Amino acid sequence: MLTDLSAWAVTAVVVLGALSVAAGIAVFVVDSMARATFALLASFLAVTGVLIAFDLDYLAFVTALMMTIEMAIMAVFMIMFMMNPAGLMPMTMVHNARGSALVGAGAFVALTVGIWTIDWPVGEVTRPADSTRQLGEAIMGSHMLAMLVIGVGLFATIISGTLLATARGRYDRFGADLRAARPNDPVPGGLPR
Amino acid sequence: MDHGGSDGGGMDHAAMGHGGMDHGGMGHGGSDGGGMDHAAMGHAGMSHGDSEDGGSDDGGIDHAAMDHSGMDHSGMDHSGMDHSGMDHSGMDHGGMDHGDSDDGGMDHGGSDDRGMDHAATGHVGMDHGDDSDDGAMDQVGMDHAAMGHAGMSHGDSEDGGSDDGEIDHAAMDHSGMDHGGSDDGGMDHGGSEHGGMDHAAMGHGGHGGMDHSGHGGMDVAGLPMAETATDRDGLQLDELKVSLGPVLPGWPTGLLLRGRLQGDVLTGVGLSWLDQEGASADALDAGDSRPAALDRLARFLDVAGWPLAAHEARQARAGLMSHDPDVVAQADRLAVRVARRVRRSRTLAWSARGTGVMTTEGSGPLEGDVLDRVRRWCDTAAGEQHAPEPLPELRLDTVATLLEGAEIGAARLTLASLPLSRQTALEHSEAAGV
Amino acid sequence: MSDSGAGIATSAAAWGLAPAVLLVAVVALLLAFGVAAVDRLVVSGAGSRAMWEPLRSGVRLMAEERRTTLAPDSLLWRLGCASVPVLALLSLAVVPLGGRTLLSTSADLVWFNAMESILWAAVWLVGWGPNAVHALTGGYRFLIQGLSYELPLMFSLITVGIGAQSLRATDVVAAQESLWFVLTMPVAFAVFLATAAAFAFWGPFASPAGVDVAGGVRSELSGVERLLVELGRAAFLGAAAAMATAAFLGGDAGPWLPGPVWQLVKTVGVVVLFVLIGRRLPVVRPERFVEVAWMVLIPLTLLQALVVAVLSLSGFYA
Questions:
Q1: How far apart are CA B46 and CA B154, in angstroms?
Q2: Which of C44, C68, C70, C287 to mutate against chain B (most B CBs within 10 Å)?
Q3: Structural domain harbouring A77
Q4: Is residue B413 within 8 angstroms of chain C, CB to CB?
Q5: Residue A86 and residue B238: Cβ atoms within 8 Å?
Q6: Are residue B218 and residue B70 in the same domain, yes or no?
Q7: DSSP letter assigned to residue C212
Q8: ipTM (interface predicted TM)
Q9: Does any domain span residue C318?
Q10: Structural domain of residue B380, as residue ranges?
Q11: Residues B351-401: pLDDT tens digits?
């Protein structure tokens, strides 16, 4: 499998892989919420680089896109909600340091040993000319059911999460009989209603 | 104050969380005692006597309903006190009434001393002198220097290891404290959250020269950390004590806004004028001429993010002041055009509609939302309205209620839509003999 | 990076890596200057001398001493400032210049989108770094605005991909030989322009750098850092104009004149459009825009994608 790749690609995978692990470790070393968040983002961007080296362009760019947006939003939420308010206060991402270190190291070793010892099947499949097209055909074809279930599931989770988090319901907005012409919001939105 | 080499320019004590201290008339009602401003308290002469407070535990003190009026601290002797080991965690100063003391400008409202940790406070060497460059600090009115603590005597009590858990200060009488004389006005420590303070090991001996930098762990580089509080929607969110002003683009010069910021939502807003004690004096700029209206319009358009229209409004204003009739005629046309464009802008209407609504009876030409007010100026600026109604009385605390729970942007629009002026406020307060 | 797409040579492959990178950098600088110059001309209303003002202020910023704030997060702050122009360059790497792109992947449009999304992190850091209220508020506003425009932007780019049956930028240009996409995708085009102004936080979408927050994310910037951020912003807007040209206006296609000239003319036209419309409008407050984006723009762009998908299936673009 690896032999399919050029020397450049192999080097890139090794360097970026090491970088992503290092950035992942940095998450638990740095002492500010913002730095931890953006160390995690750096780790994801290194993974993006690995995917690019594997010629998985679409997956790589989508990873960068989704993860950056996710991290940016997460940074705001963590900073607004959690223990490290203004961010420059020394803090740590580690809880139960010993236990989590053991579990983390154990999982890392198990996975690494597994990856290098398992006799992976070597298919006769040739690499596609256009991995993006192949991915699209898989998602919209043979794996459509799975993708739709996951998509709808995620969407439902987002909506129910928002519903649980907000204290205001439609009765607060439109009155007990839901007849108010305009919702009673603390900040009016942009639509004329 | 010696901020230990820090660059005062960036110091924003606004964030410090002494949130809007107001000792003027000291309404400590509801305050939690937090965030007092000890700037230049002049404890130099204090003598804490020989008392030994080591190891006392003041957890759970309830200062509610204290009445400090009439206290006489003169003659106290604090020399030699050792407060080491005190734990003030859990103090609740809520509801203190400091009566008649004159601490002009401090506002303890809403601050919160939960779990203070003064460990290593090291008040030794504090220099609250004038060399600090505290950018946004509010020098208004506080007056602790020469607090007259010199000569206080706390007697020879021996409190070592005592447990003051249930101390009741209810009957204390502080009035008659003399905080006067000095003019350290309003160092706005607004917002310094003394959360987690621990007075252990404070060496109160020798307050001459306190050093507040380094409240062990509770602040970073002299800036205290934000704390959490319930937000507009009932979520526990980080809140930052801020003060806006006295100088910002499109901002009534000299106006100070102190409040708390959650994300970009303002709460606990208090407004005051710089250098002015009667903070709530009537403060409307009554000028209703065309240039004045164009001035206001330009300021508002700056804040609303419409620099092109603001530029034209200023051009028109400059032209109207000219002696050349041609220039005046041209400026007149420009003023009419700008006013019409602003009046008719759908984007502005969409963006500003429903912000800063004043429903108070008799608010006359100020009634309605930001857009209504701006459109009235547009009429004046275009020279259409010849008999403007007299402006009503508008107190700063009325304005402050408008800003409660508004985003910074909405608050700025609201303020920019009100013809507030420090000059007028000063004249009014002088007329009233304040 | 897969260059394996049949017979497509990148500019790096055609002219060598260094000249190709240099070309992108020079074009980015020229676009940034172009945006700033047109903006100055319109705002000041003065003569052509005003258009050189951005150069003068650029030089002044380079010489200016840096201010700093109390207890800033310098590492993240500088990282954010440096990222803004770098991301603008990277997004320009997939825009066809002279018929070739610096990078050519099977997902160019997604690359462009990804660079814009990394800008979220960069701008947030620019607001976070100085540890100041107004800058932080600007950072918050950028993210709020981002949540509003991101999905409409994605859908408008996807619509282009559907029409071209490819996400590769050169394929998109080639697919418009007979008909510019703007004719069948007017909604996607308008949304793309609006979101471009939003991710460069410019014009009516400038609230992250608004006067009401004393300059927002820009409020604490000085010297070279201010220059980098301003340059990056302008370059992003220019790159978006170039991308709009390639994705909706047929790229370098046009009669009589050589391709690059047509591309330049169209790009400058889009920039002028940006400035003329953008400067005539006051800033739109994020809390107003968010509802319109989610309740109006997302359904509209989805509908646009549906129309294009149906057209595409019926062989309209073939």
A1: 10
A2: C70
A3: 1-94
A4: yes
A5: yes
A6: yes
A7: G
A8: 0.87
A9: no
A10: 290-431
A11: 888 888 877 666 667 777 888 888 888 888 887 765 556 666 677 878 888
